Structure formats: structure tokens, C-alpha cells
Amino acid sequence: GPTCALGLKPAILFNGELWEQNVQLKKVQLLMLDYFRGEQVEMLNLKGLENVISITAASEDRILLRVYRISLKKSGSRTPRIELQLMGPSMDIRIG
What we know:
With about 100 residues, the protein is of the alpha+beta class. It is about 20% helix and about 40% strand. The protein is built from two helices and four strands; from the N terminus they run βααβββ. It has helices spanning about 20, 25-35, and strands at about 10-15, 50-60, 60-75, 80-95. The chain has a four-stranded mixed β-sheet with strand order 1-2-3-4, with helices on one face. It is globular, with a radius of gyration of 15 Å.
């Protein structure tokens, strides 16, 4: 399947309103950020962004983690069209 180069920083995306509404999920969100963050950067080169980690709060005790590879395609304008391909790992996490 699709892969990305080692050492590149991923974009981290939190989906769902529950991240702000549930105290336990807020703690999980901070834990995930600490685990995946790496060093902070001031500027970002769009061509160097190759993968995204999508973390979705499906319910108050269930989190879906997916990793996608980013493909930049020609769009006919200055801004490229972005396609996501499931790269893995994919996890369904239940908070106990």
C-alpha cells in the first residue's frame, strides 16, 4: 500500500465536537498530541506534508485513529487538489 518517507512530520486532525465537551476525551487529546507532535515548526512547506493522522471521537468511549497519505494533484488553479489514501495503521480504540 501507500507509504511516506521516514522522519516527516504528520498533520494531526481531531474530528468531532466531543473533544471539547468531554473532560476524559480532552485528556486523551492532549496525550495523542504529546505522542505524535514532535517539534513545533514556524513555517510549513505544503510539498513536505505527506501524511495526516485523523483521530475521530465517535462516541464518549470510542476513538477512531486512521493514518492517510496525502497526494497533491493538479487542479487547474494555484492551489492543488488534495487526495487522501488510507495508509495505516487503523485503530478503533475503546476508552475504559
